Fold this sequence. Notes:
Order of helices and strands: HHHHHHHHH
Helix content: 55-70%
Shape: elongated
Number of helices: 9
Largest sheet: none
Distance between the termini: 31 Å
Low-confidence stretches: none
Number of domains: 2
Structural class: mainly alpha
Amino acid sequence: xxxxxxxxxxxxxxxxxxxxxxxxxxxxxxxxxxEFNEALAVDGLQQLTLGEYLMSSDFAVDVTENWxxxxxxxxxxxxxxxxxxxxxxxxxxxxHKAGPESDRDQHVGDHARADSPRWAATKDWRQTLYSRSxxxxxxxxxxxxxxxxxxxxxxxxxxxxxxxxQEPLGWGAYLGSADFWNRSLQNWQSELLAVAAMAIxxxxxxxxxxxxxxxxxxxxxxxxxxx
Length: 227
Protein backbone atom coordinates (compact mmCIF):
# COMPACT_ATOMS: atom_id res chain seq x y z
CA UNK A 1 0.00 0.00 0.00
CA UNK A 2 2.78 2.43 0.86
CA UNK A 3 4.43 1.73 -2.51
CA UNK A 4 1.20 2.53 -4.31
CA UNK A 5 0.79 5.77 -2.38
CA UNK A 6 4.39 6.64 -3.13
CA UNK A 7 3.89 6.11 -6.88
CA UNK A 8 0.86 8.40 -7.02
CA UNK A 9 2.52 10.97 -4.79
CA UNK A 10 5.80 10.95 -6.72
CA UNK A 11 4.12 11.16 -10.13
CA UNK A 12 1.04 13.23 -9.28
CA UNK A 13 1.93 16.17 -11.54
CA UNK A 14 2.22 14.04 -14.68
CA UNK A 15 -0.74 11.84 -13.75
CA UNK A 16 -3.03 14.78 -12.97
CA UNK A 17 -2.23 16.67 -16.15
CA UNK A 18 -2.27 13.48 -18.23
CA UNK A 19 -5.71 12.58 -16.91
CA UNK A 20 -6.89 16.13 -17.51
CA UNK A 21 -5.62 15.92 -21.08
CA UNK A 22 -7.69 12.82 -21.86
CA UNK A 23 -10.79 14.26 -20.21
CA UNK A 24 -10.53 17.52 -22.11
CA UNK A 25 -9.78 15.68 -25.37
CA UNK A 26 -12.93 13.60 -24.84
CA UNK A 27 -14.90 16.78 -24.20
CA UNK A 28 -13.50 18.35 -27.35
CA UNK A 29 -14.47 15.26 -29.34
CA UNK A 30 -18.07 15.41 -28.11
CA UNK A 31 -18.43 19.14 -28.67
CA UNK A 32 -16.69 18.99 -32.06
CA UNK A 33 -18.87 16.09 -33.16
CA UNK A 34 -22.03 18.00 -32.30
CA GLU A 35 -20.83 21.15 -34.06
CA PHE A 36 -19.71 19.21 -37.14
CA ASN A 37 -23.05 17.43 -37.46
CA GLU A 38 -24.87 20.74 -37.14
CA ALA A 39 -22.90 22.02 -40.12
CA LEU A 40 -23.68 18.85 -42.08
CA ALA A 41 -27.38 19.22 -41.29
CA VAL A 42 -27.37 22.79 -42.59
CA ASP A 43 -25.84 21.54 -45.84
CA GLY A 44 -28.37 18.72 -46.04
CA LEU A 45 -25.69 16.02 -45.72
CA GLN A 46 -25.67 12.77 -43.79
CA GLN A 47 -24.41 13.14 -40.25
CA LEU A 48 -21.44 11.21 -38.85
CA THR A 49 -21.32 8.89 -35.88
CA LEU A 50 -18.89 9.79 -33.11
CA GLY A 51 -16.51 7.07 -34.26
CA GLU A 52 -16.57 8.38 -37.83
CA TYR A 53 -15.93 11.91 -36.58
CA LEU A 54 -12.94 10.77 -34.50
CA MET A 55 -11.40 9.32 -37.68
CA SER A 56 -12.15 12.43 -39.73
CA SER A 57 -9.67 15.03 -40.93
CA ASP A 58 -11.70 17.77 -39.26
CA PHE A 59 -11.10 16.31 -35.79
CA ALA A 60 -7.46 15.57 -36.58
CA VAL A 61 -6.65 19.09 -37.74
CA ASP A 62 -8.35 20.68 -34.72
CA VAL A 63 -6.26 18.52 -32.37
CA THR A 64 -2.92 18.74 -34.13
CA GLU A 65 -3.01 22.51 -34.64
CA ASN A 66 -3.14 22.91 -30.86
CA TRP A 67 -0.45 20.33 -30.22
CA UNK A 68 2.06 21.88 -32.59
CA UNK A 69 1.69 25.32 -31.03
CA UNK A 70 2.30 23.90 -27.55
CA UNK A 71 5.41 22.01 -28.61
CA UNK A 72 6.63 25.14 -30.42
CA UNK A 73 6.21 27.11 -27.20
CA UNK A 74 8.30 24.68 -25.18
CA UNK A 75 10.93 24.29 -27.91
CA UNK A 76 11.42 28.07 -28.09
CA UNK A 77 11.35 28.37 -24.31
CA UNK A 78 13.89 25.58 -23.73
CA UNK A 79 16.33 26.98 -26.29
CA UNK A 80 15.61 30.66 -25.71
CA UNK A 81 16.25 30.55 -21.98
CA UNK A 82 19.79 29.34 -22.60
CA UNK A 83 20.70 32.88 -23.68
CA UNK A 84 17.72 35.15 -22.98
CA UNK A 85 17.22 36.57 -19.49
CA UNK A 86 14.59 38.43 -17.49
CA UNK A 87 15.78 40.23 -14.38
CA UNK A 88 13.68 39.26 -11.38
CA UNK A 89 11.93 36.28 -12.99
CA UNK A 90 12.12 32.69 -11.71
CA UNK A 91 11.59 31.69 -15.35
CA UNK A 92 15.07 33.09 -16.13
CA UNK A 93 18.52 31.92 -15.17
CA UNK A 94 20.64 34.15 -13.01
CA UNK A 95 21.96 37.05 -15.04
CA HIS A 96 25.59 35.91 -15.00
CA LYS A 97 24.76 32.43 -16.32
CA ALA A 98 23.70 33.25 -19.90
CA GLY A 99 24.84 30.60 -22.36
CA PRO A 100 25.35 26.82 -22.13
CA GLU A 101 27.42 27.14 -18.91
CA SER A 102 30.59 25.27 -17.98
CA ASP A 103 31.06 21.51 -17.64
CA ARG A 104 31.44 22.01 -13.90
CA ASP A 105 28.12 23.84 -13.64
CA GLN A 106 26.38 21.22 -15.77
CA HIS A 107 28.01 18.20 -14.07
CA VAL A 108 29.21 16.63 -17.33
CA GLY A 109 32.40 14.91 -18.43
CA ASP A 110 35.00 14.90 -15.67
CA HIS A 111 32.57 16.77 -13.44
CA ALA A 112 29.77 14.19 -13.64
CA ARG A 113 28.53 12.91 -10.30
CA ALA A 114 28.01 9.32 -9.27
CA ASP A 115 24.25 9.67 -9.76
CA SER A 116 24.50 11.57 -13.07
CA PRO A 117 22.93 9.99 -16.18
CA ARG A 118 25.44 7.69 -17.87
CA TRP A 119 25.73 9.74 -21.07
CA ALA A 120 26.49 12.88 -19.06
CA ALA A 121 29.83 11.38 -18.03
CA THR A 122 30.97 10.69 -21.60
CA LYS A 123 33.10 13.07 -23.66
CA ASP A 124 31.85 12.26 -27.17
CA TRP A 125 28.73 12.64 -29.30
CA ARG A 126 26.61 11.00 -26.62
CA GLN A 127 27.16 13.87 -24.21
CA THR A 128 26.53 16.40 -26.99
CA LEU A 129 23.29 14.68 -27.96
CA TYR A 130 22.06 14.14 -24.42
CA SER A 131 22.88 17.69 -23.35
CA ARG A 132 20.50 18.97 -26.04
CA SER A 133 17.98 16.14 -25.98
CA UNK A 134 15.09 18.05 -24.40
CA UNK A 135 15.08 20.85 -26.96
CA UNK A 136 15.72 18.43 -29.81
CA UNK A 137 12.77 16.22 -28.89
CA UNK A 138 10.51 19.26 -28.45
CA UNK A 139 11.56 20.52 -31.89
CA UNK A 140 10.89 17.10 -33.42
CA UNK A 141 7.46 16.88 -31.78
CA UNK A 142 6.62 20.36 -33.05
CA UNK A 143 7.65 19.53 -36.62
CA UNK A 144 5.83 16.19 -36.59
CA UNK A 145 2.61 17.67 -35.21
CA UNK A 146 2.85 20.60 -37.65
CA UNK A 147 3.25 18.11 -40.49
CA UNK A 148 0.25 16.17 -39.20
CA UNK A 149 -1.72 19.42 -39.05
CA UNK A 150 -0.87 20.20 -42.66
CA UNK A 151 -1.91 16.73 -43.88
CA UNK A 152 -5.15 16.71 -41.90
CA UNK A 153 -5.73 20.36 -42.76
CA UNK A 154 -5.54 19.91 -46.51
CA UNK A 155 -7.89 16.91 -46.29
CA UNK A 156 -10.43 18.92 -44.27
CA UNK A 157 -10.04 21.95 -46.51
CA UNK A 158 -10.47 19.95 -49.71
CA UNK A 159 -13.51 18.20 -48.29
CA UNK A 160 -15.09 21.58 -47.63
CA UNK A 161 -14.15 22.75 -51.11
CA UNK A 162 -15.83 19.72 -52.68
CA UNK A 163 -19.00 20.30 -50.67
CA UNK A 164 -19.12 23.77 -52.17
CA UNK A 165 -18.38 22.37 -55.66
CA GLN A 166 -15.03 24.14 -55.77
CA GLU A 167 -11.61 22.92 -56.90
CA PRO A 168 -9.60 21.20 -54.13
CA LEU A 169 -5.99 22.12 -53.36
CA GLY A 170 -2.99 19.83 -53.28
CA TRP A 171 -0.80 19.58 -50.18
CA GLY A 172 1.89 21.87 -51.61
CA ALA A 173 -0.61 24.57 -52.49
CA TYR A 174 -2.27 24.25 -49.09
CA LEU A 175 1.03 25.02 -47.34
CA GLY A 176 0.88 28.49 -48.87
CA SER A 177 -2.83 29.00 -48.22
CA ALA A 178 -4.41 31.47 -45.82
CA ASP A 179 -6.23 28.63 -44.05
CA PHE A 180 -2.99 26.85 -43.11
CA TRP A 181 -1.21 29.96 -41.87
CA ASN A 182 -4.26 31.31 -40.08
CA ARG A 183 -4.54 28.04 -38.15
CA SER A 184 -0.83 28.14 -37.30
CA LEU A 185 -0.31 31.80 -36.49
CA GLN A 186 -3.41 32.24 -34.32
CA ASN A 187 -2.03 29.57 -32.00
CA TRP A 188 1.59 30.73 -32.10
CA GLN A 189 0.75 34.28 -31.03
CA SER A 190 -1.22 33.06 -28.02
CA GLU A 191 1.66 30.81 -26.89
CA LEU A 192 4.23 33.59 -27.21
CA LEU A 193 1.96 35.98 -25.31
CA ALA A 194 1.52 33.45 -22.50
CA VAL A 195 5.28 32.92 -22.12
CA ALA A 196 6.02 36.65 -22.16
CA ALA A 197 3.27 37.29 -19.59
CA MET A 198 4.55 34.52 -17.31
CA ALA A 199 8.13 35.79 -17.50
CA ILE A 200 7.28 39.38 -16.56
CA UNK A 201 4.37 38.80 -14.14
CA UNK A 202 6.43 36.36 -12.07
CA UNK A 203 8.84 39.24 -11.35
CA UNK A 204 6.21 41.04 -9.25
CA UNK A 205 3.55 38.43 -8.40
CA UNK A 206 3.85 35.33 -6.21
CA UNK A 207 2.22 31.93 -5.76
CA UNK A 208 3.17 30.42 -2.44
CA UNK A 209 4.63 26.92 -2.72
CA UNK A 210 4.89 26.88 -6.53
CA UNK A 211 8.25 26.28 -8.25
CA UNK A 212 7.03 28.63 -10.98
CA UNK A 213 7.08 31.48 -8.46
CA UNK A 214 9.75 33.00 -6.28
CA UNK A 215 9.34 32.65 -2.50
CA UNK A 216 6.74 35.17 -1.38
CA UNK A 217 9.27 37.26 0.50
CA UNK A 218 11.92 37.37 -2.23
CA UNK A 219 12.70 40.82 -3.63
CA UNK A 220 11.41 41.68 -7.10
CA UNK A 221 14.97 41.81 -8.42
CA UNK A 222 15.85 38.24 -7.38
CA UNK A 223 16.48 36.26 -10.57
CA UNK A 224 16.43 32.51 -11.08
CA UNK A 225 15.08 31.86 -7.58
CA UNK A 226 12.23 29.36 -7.27
CA UNK A 227 9.81 28.87 -4.38
